[in-house]
Design goal:
By secondary structure, this protein is mainly alpha-helical. It has helices at residues 2-25, 31-37, 43-52, 71-75, 99-106, 114-124, 191-204, 208-215, and strands at residues 68-70, 91-95, 127-131, 175-177, 182-183. The protein is globular, with a radius of gyration of 16 Å. It starts with a helix and ends with a helix.
């Protein structure tokens, strides 16, 4: 049954990327992208960029573009998913690599043009659709001391290149990779795996030139 849920959720994610391809391309012309490319770094700009990729729960998006989702999230019927706190939020986009970590690491990274900046965010940011509310996973899944940080981009750290090690497996249901249709092993899943998933999502979005640029 879980495999069937993952397949259905994967189809939803694919449909979002197929539908939003041109809007995602227009990210290049947004003030947020311009500022980020110039190293005028603001956390809110990264968050707004995430929204364009469907990496938000609010605004009726309901984590539609997320490539990673927990089993509890997938088991929640679409009609019961709510991303608005005032209406009784039941789903949340968990920034597996927190925005604060991203904004710290993007400064000084090797980026030639705004397209490089968008691709940097896509390939270094990992987000997961999780359940929220009184019995949800959101507030119990992150390891102590890592509420606002991740060591996945910290060289020589034990968590380097392993973004899902930030989570305590006892605090959440298993996480699925919807591109590959299988459970994530946090000890093995790397940024290379994420990069390959993003390349596939970009091809769903008919952004083959971006995917090709990543592979070059």
């Amino acid at each position: 049954m879980t495999v069937e849920l993952a397949r259905a959720e994967g189809n939803r994610a694919r449909a979002f990327w197929q539908r939003e391809g041109e809007r995602i391309r227009r990210t290049l012309r947004t003030p947020q992208c311009v500022r980020l490319h110039k190293n005028d770094i603001r956390n809110i700009d990264v968050r707004h960029m995430h929204n364009r990729f469907g990496w938000q729960a609010g605004g009726q998006t309901l984590c539609a573009g997320a490539l990673y989702r927990t089993e509890d999230f997938m088991a929640l019927p679409e009609a019961d998913r709510c991303g608005t706190k005032a209406l009784g939020q039941t789903v949340h986009i968990e920034h597996t690599v927190p925005v604060a970590t991203l904004t710290r690491c993007i400064v000084g990274s090797d980026r030639i043009d705004p397209e490089d900046t968008v691709l940097w965010v896509l390939t270094h940011s990992v987000v997961t659709g999780v359940t929220d509310g009184p019995t949800g996973e959101r507030h119990r899944m992150v390891r102590r001391g890592q509420a606002t940080r991740s060591h996945a981009l910290t060289p020589d750290h034990a968590d380097h290149d392993r973004p899902f090690r930030r989570y305590d497996p006892a605090g959440h249901s298993p996480i699925w990779d919807l591109v590959r249709g299988k459970r994530i092993d946090p000890e093995r899943f790397s940024f290379l795996d994420h990069r390959e998933n993003i390349a596939m999502a970009l091809r769903w979005a008919a952004l083959d030139d971006w995917a090709d640029r990543m592979a070059a």
